[in-house]
Design goal:
The structure is a single chain. The protein contains 21 helices and 18 strands. It is α/β, with parallel strands linked by helices and 615 residues long. The chain has four domains: 230 residues, P-loop containing nucleotide triphosphate hydrolases (Rossmann fold, 3-Layer(aba) Sandwich); 51 residues; 197 residues, Rossmann fold; 72 residues, Orthogonal Bundle (Helix Hairpins). About 3% of the residues have low confidence.
Length: 615
């Protein structure tokens, strides 16, 4: 489907990619990983045709379609519903034809095609997408321009998912989502009928959604079968094997060079020495592997002594005008507490963090903070408050005017801000670099309590791992809001559920929380009246006939799903690509597309029957 062959691309005169290769086949879900700046987003632009390689090939199979999430925030006056429906280009083209008054051959062909793609159910599908991404029913008719930037990015995601595409490109789709929406998106992508190429720094999201990893590093792309955890294991083994081969080769080279050095001048050994010189020249040198991708050694220290009681909330309440977020909340925060706040979007998790740090004041009750404790606070809006004209070193010098420059530079280096980064103005920084600086400024203060609101946004996987280790070793108290489940599992000892105007200890783990979310999500979250392109006569079907038709359809659907599972298992097995011919694999992919199309048709037919029986 997608073929990248010996592709080279220069950025600023330097090769960002050099002889890179990547193939994507039907039903493959590929996670694209690598440190920030390695070229993942550029690769997406090359695939979309926005950039052209210096040499090599970047091609999509003829007739295949591509969908991606637009990164620009739209200011459209269209309603959210119409904006998302516009993502289905095929639907909109057919609707335009069906609006014509003249019913010629093209019109009747469009009508048949419209019914085949279930055009009448398009609004219901769009509504389900929007609901899953956190939009309530009242938001569907609001203009796009009325939403904040983060919510407009969700609209862009919904619009891309609405597209009927063979290959879906997703660049950090979870960045603007809460945990509830991420869990929904995982389930949606598991059922997505096409192939997916996904960039994400969320370990658990990758594990749940991909069956192959493409690792971008040093200008090339290496492929690994399996999810992200499988990739880490396989890469570690590959590195170990390469380093072992390097050591073995170095011994061989040393032996050959020693022979040449000792016997080159001797007439009786000159011929043998010359043959070894030629052997050295022919030798393909194995490079030692130096893992420099995102090597960070973060350390967040707590004071040696800390009071036992840090904060106390007594009957605390908070409201925005008439909207009550909290009422009669009680909580005691003690030294060493490690709490993760869970809860639906808009329930007040970030607001609670702002109350604890003092950015907001309770409207009722009391919030008592023990005097003289130092609070380290991280939130995304703080990144915009950094001095854009100052360098990281200047930021840190303001906190520690008496400290030596060497000590400050060494400290910044732990957060990946060494070298040129120290002397660049913050205005030129990426989101990840700003986040690392904000964390460094926080860590320098040795806080008694860390209040962290989505600290992993913009951080790559290596930096997330380093932050996780630092928080595990941190001896102070932590209250964290995050959609990174790996971070929550590693750092939090307690889960608190923020919902329905209160914050209470949650009796369960993240899997229990997932079930709690699903229990609150109604089966039919949004009711949308379908719009038909033509008038029709309503005929009440016979219930027994419908039941009989459904039973037959279910038998056929089960058979098709079984065959599809068997094909997917074959395609997901690395042995298939080593043991079978390319013609066999191509035929297998073709068969998979046919069966997948049949499964989709049967599932749509089953849904129509269910709706008819309910009616």
């Amino acid at each position: 489907m997608l073929n990248i062959l010996n592709m080279t691309y220069l950025q600023g005169g330097e090769p960002l990619f050099s002889g890179a290769n990547l193939q994507a086949f039907a039903n493959q879900r590929i996670g694209l990983v690598g440190k920030n700046g390695c070229g993942k987003s550029t690769l997406f632009r090359l695939i979309r045709g926005e950039l052209q390689p210096e040499s090599g090939e970047v091609s999509l199979q003829s007739g295949k379609t591509l969908a991606c999430v637009e990164q620009e925030i739209s200011h459209s006056d269209l309603s959210a519903m119409e904006f998302v429906l516009d993502g289905d280009v095929q639907l909109r083209r057919l609707e335009k034809i069906l609006q014509q008054e003249q019913h010629d051959g093209d019109w009747f062909e469009a009508q048949q095609h419209f019914e085949a793609i279930d055009g009448y159910g398009a609004r219901a599908r769009a509504a389900q997408l929007l609901s899953g991404l956190g939009f309530d029913t009242g938001a569907l008719e609001r203009p796009v321009s009325s939403f904040s930037g983060g919510w407009r990015m969700r609209l862009n995601l919904a619009r891309a998912l609405m597209h009927r595409a063979d290959l879906l490109l997703l660049d950090e789709p979870t960045n603007h989502l809460d945990l509830e929406a991420i869990l929904w998106l995982e389930q949606y992508l598991a059922r997505y009928p096409g192939s997916i190429l996904l960039v994400s720094h969320d370990r658990e999201f990758l594990n749940a959604t991909v069956n192959r990893i493409a690792h971008v590093h040093e200008g090339v792309i290496d492929s690994y079968a399996g999810d992200y955890d499988d990739f880490e294991r396989a890469r570690a083994e590959r590195i170990a094997q390469q380093n072992q081969a390097f050591q073995t080769q170095q011994l061989k080279i040393a032996h050959l060079e020693d022979f040449v050095r000792r016997f080159r001048a001797q007439a009786t050994k000159a011929k043998q020495a010359q043959s070894r010189v030629k052997a050295l020249e022919r030798l393909t040198r194995i490079a030692a592997v130096h893992i420099t991708d995102g090597h960070f050694e973060l350390e967040i220290e707590a004071p040696e002594r800390s009071p036992d009681l840090l904060m106390r909330l007594e009957n605390m309440g908070f409201s925005y005008g008439e909207k009550i977020l909290f009422k009669n909340m009680n909580m005691v925060l003690r030294a060493g507490a490690r709490i993760a706040l869970l809860g639906p979007n808009g329930a007040g998790k970030s607001t609670l963090i702002k109350l604890l740090v003092g950015e907001l004041t309770p409207t009722t009750g009391r919030l008592e903070v023990t005097p003289d404790i130092r609070i380290g606070y991280f939130a995304q809006h703080q990144l915009e408050n950094l001095d854009g004209d100052a360098t990281p070193l200047q930021h840190l010098e303001r906190l520690a005017p008496g400290e030596t420059t060497l000590a400050l530079r060494t400290f910044l280096g732990r957060f990946g801000l060494a070298g040129n980064s120290e002397d660049r103005p913050v205005a030129s920084f990426s989101g990840g670099e700003k986040s690392r600086l904000a964390l460094a400024l926080l860590a320098w203060q040795k806080p008694h309590l860390l209040l962290l609101d989505e600290p992993t946004n913009h951080l790559d996987l290596d930096m997330r791992d380093a932050l996780t280790l630092a928080l595990e070793e941190y001896a102070g108290a932590v209250v964290i809001v995050s959609h990174d489940r790996s971070l929550i599992r590693a750092v939090a000892d307690e889960l608190w559920l923020v919902a329905d105007g209160d914050a209470l200890l949650f009796d369960g783990d993240l899997e229990d929380y997932k079930r709690w979310i699903e229990s609150r999500r109604p089966r039919e979250t949004v009711q949308v009246k379908p719009e038909r392109a033509t008038k029709s006569v309503a005929i009440k079907p016979n219930m027994k006939a419908l039941q009989s038709k459904r039973s037959k359809l279910e038998i056929e659907l089960n058979k098709a799903q079984l065959e599809l599972t068997q094909i997917n298992n074959q395609l997901g097995n690395p042995a298939t690509y080593s043991d079978c011919t390319s013609e066999f694999i191509m035929n297998l992919n073709t068969r998979r597309e046919i069966v997948q199309t049949r499964v989709d048709e049967l599932e749509e037919g089953w849904l129509v029957l269910e709706m008819a029986m309910e009616a």
